[in-house]
Amino acid sequence: MAKITHNNFLDTVNEVFTDAKQQGIMHLYAEGEDFSGRTIGVGGQNLFHFGTTGYLGLEQDQRLKEAAIEAIRKYGTQFPLSKSYISNPLYAELEAKLTEMYQNPIIITKNSTLGHMGVIPNAVSDQDAIILDHQVHWSVQSAAKVLKNRSVPIDMIRHNNLNMLEDKIKRLSDKHKRIWYMADGIYSMYGDFAPLKDLKALCLKYPQLHLYIDDVHGMSWTGKNGTGYALGELGELSEHMLVFGTLSKTFGASGAVLACSNEKMYHEIKTFGGPLTFSAQLEPASVAAAIASADIHLSEEIYELQNDLNERVMYFNILLQNTNLPLIDQNHSPVFFIGTVMPKTGYNFVSRLMKEGFFVNLGIFPAVPVKNTGVRLTISRHNEKPEIESLEEAMVYHFPKALEDTHTNLERVCKAFKMEPKTEKQDKIKVPTELQVKIYSRIEQLDKQLWNTTVGKRGVYDWEGLQFLESVFSGNRKPEHNWTFKYIQICDAKGQPILLTFLTLGLWKDDMLAKESASKQIENQRETMPYHLTSRVLSMGSLFTEGEHWYLNEQHHLKQEALGQLIKTTETLEQELQAKMVVLRDFDADTPWHDYFQGQGFVRVKMPNACHVDLKEGITMETFVQQLSSRNRRHIRKEILAHEDNLHIEVLQQADTSQLHQIAQLYHNVHKNNLGLNTFTFPQKLFASMSEHPNWEFITIRLRENPLKIIGVMLCYNNNNTVYVPAFVGLDYNYVLEYHVYRQLLYQTINRAIALQIPKIDFGMTAAFEKRKLGAVVEEKFAYLQTADNYTLELIGILE
């Protein structure tokens, strides 16, 4: 019944990138009439360039430039034919030189992204399976997902977790011919390495295991003849391995190269490799530049260039060792990542460095988890030691100031990246003296009138409702039925409330908002592993409630400071309660706090639409219907009123044992049928507790011919006669279509609220189309998520 849009990921990425663009950090244009590689023009400044992926500086080598120019003179700007028909005159020479470099058959591709799209569907058969490292490059993941159309299973492991990889190999080995593990040789954000020697040993242990390594960031600056990190570690390329290198980035030209020692597979890929067949070939200038670069790679000069770069990299590493800068992974690659945690801290730090004369990159979601934002910088042969040293000095000076500007500290950064601070004592984030922050564990500890006149004016979370929820979601056998409640109250020095809210810690299904197709796959696995892909989540509100779960005094001059303390308090609770994710919900699309939340490391995702009905004083059901459109009035007459004579409608304040059993079963029918909003069921005692509570009642529908059988039920909560909340529905699907039972329940809910003279109905978050027919106002709602781990997001992404 839940209608959920599934462009959340793209919308979220667009918002994050737009925010970074507005901060002057991304989507910039280089300026100047020439480019040396050592500096780059940005915003009227000439900055030292610490963001290149041309680590050896070959893109500025005069030999490559002259070769490209001469090729254009001879062959033109392009050779507009598919390689399947004929290659430009320079291709044969380049292929020969690359074959000599790799000592294996090679295939040249337009770029690595198109290369993966051409190679992976060819190399992987319908009898195979794929396992992805969750940090493998997007282009590999995207190409692999195409194989879902051929029913090739795709799984994922946490980054470099070989124990997890081995477990998945064991589970897949009986059913599949080959098992492909796809990873990067060197990962582009943190500059860390794949454990290739261990992977090679795993291949010997499991002959079905094949490796597919994207080594574009390991190319040229390391390895024999500059063939990269992967071949350097593997030693030789067995028939169980495919390795991608690049002719761009450090190689200095354009294109990509696949090395494949399996003769049969090599010919199949080269003969017909999708984009390799139909895409345009490399331009003559690119091929000529690549030939010139290959000549360098085949000479002793490549080792001189590698050593020259390595000396600069080691120099920077030594400088960083003597600082408190949080370098996320120290190694000998030319890629460095300094953690900032929050995007707004990253924006501040990058802006400061740019003003100081240094160009660096921001590492941001989705390349890294949003809570693992940081500054990604690279060392190249263009960088001289004096400017490397100046960069280090500028970072040491500006990093603590960026932390201070954004109200955070080094301890917070280190915790997010699971690092030990280099110094024993860290500055604490202080609560402003004019604020009082109090945390409670039970609603009884808060003033009832204060709560009910602020947060508790809505939903099932008035003072009495939360007392009910605390009772229901405690002392249960299953972990998903036990929640931890936390109430946060922030006041000024005079005790005046500025912000109040409540949080719950509970076990959530990670695919709660995923596509039904993904949830179906995951639910199949949960039949034997009931807690597969579940996480402890600290959420504003709860999975039982919906609506505006906080009170914020928008007129108070300390509202911004209070909100900051909410974020810091939530972060502390997240660590204490060992939650994997923090969720703030449910916010309107135009919330004034969007930029603030995003800067604090939260990403916005679309929730199901919320619906409500406002009822005028003195309104009757007849006058309510009359104010609807003629089309909706016809809908009511035809699909609702026409069946009333066959139905028995009754409101139960209390239900007997038989009725409670039926109500529970009807609820479970709907829950099981609603994978679009995939949650755990509620504890069985919920329904009996509702029957015993004065604020709950059941609107039931029965057939007159069988008065003991309930075919539909709405579970409704009365919030102090101010809001009527049809919280959950139960249906017998054998009767839904014939008697329009769900629409009948919606109609009867409005009828009941009018009878009770309650001015508002909170109709909940699903089936907006049906509720709109009955006059409901539909509103977009959003949640803000924060997590330090993208694994689950990536895994569910490959299942959708």
Structure description:
- The protein is built from 28 helices and 28 strands.
- It starts with 7 loop residues before the first helix and ends with a helix.
- The chain is 38% helix and 21% strand.
- The protein folds into 4 domains: 162 residues, Aspartate Aminotransferase, domain 1, CATH 3.90.1150; 219 residues, Type I PLP-dependent aspartate aminotransferase-like (Major domain) (Aspartate Aminotransferase, domain 2, 3-Layer(aba) Sandwich); 189 residues, Aminopeptidase, CATH 3.40.630; 170 residues, Aminopeptidase, CATH 3.40.630.30.
- Helix 5 links the parallel strand 4 and strand 5.
- The longest helix is centred in the middle third of the chain and has 21 residues.
- The strands form 6 sheets. Strands 14, 15, 16, 17, 18, 19, 20 and 28 form an 8-stranded mixed beta sheet that branches. Strands 3-9-8-7-6-4-5 form a 7-stranded mixed beta sheet, with helices on both faces.
- Helix 4 runs parallel beside helix 5.
- The radius of gyration is 31 Å and the shape is globular.
